[in-house]
Amino acid sequence: MTKQPHDTDVAFIQALAELLNANELTELSVKREYGENDSLNVRVTKQANVVTTTATAAPAPAPAAAPAAAPAAAPAVAEDPAQHPGAVTSPMVGTAYLAPEPGAENFVSIGTQVSEGDTLLIVEAMKTMNHIPAPRAGTVKRILVEDGSPVEYGAPLVILE
């Protein structure tokens, strides 16, 4: 049983990141077992066009692996739009549409003043068009999705301030 990181771990994590991008996935989680009390847990996520990798090792075998991965994940947390206090998140999995129909003007654009309850965009789920209302009055500072793009539950859609 070794307490050193396995040489193939770096190549394995890089391959997971490439797999994530090639298949347009947003997250992969893998547990690699090397033997009794020797494993590697890897979680690769993609948010707002940023790929972050967090690797943690089993507590006993590789104490040096966890601190090495922590600095790589820290910048992604600081820039995460979902953590912004004005973030409006998706209440469901679906497809985001910025306009009521193709060719029509968008519901909102950057700088638009909205009142509580105004429609910001639509999320289509199971052929049902769900209007996403503004939770409060404010100004649209950022639109974080593109028209026709897939969204996940809890994904940030718009930043209101």
UniProtKB/TrEMBL annotation:
Residues 85-161 form the Lipoyl-binding domain. GO terms for molecular function: acetyl-CoA carboxylase activity. CDD domains: biotinyl_domain (cd06850). Pathway: Lipid metabolism; fatty acid biosynthesis. Keywords: Biotin, Fatty acid biosynthesis, Fatty acid metabolism, Ligase, Lipid biosynthesis, Lipid metabolism. SUPFAM superfamilies: Single hybrid motif (SSF51230). Signal peptide: none annotated. Residues 58-83 are annotated as: Disordered. Residues 58-78 have a biased composition (Low complexity). PROSITE patterns: BIOTIN, BIOTINYL_LIPOYL. This protein is a component of the acetyl coenzyme A carboxylase complex; first, biotin carboxylase catalyzes the carboxylation of the carrier protein and then the transcarboxylase transfers the carboxyl group to form malonyl-CoA. This is Biotin carboxyl carrier protein of acetyl-CoA carboxylase. It comes from Acidimangrovimonas pyrenivorans. The gene is accB.
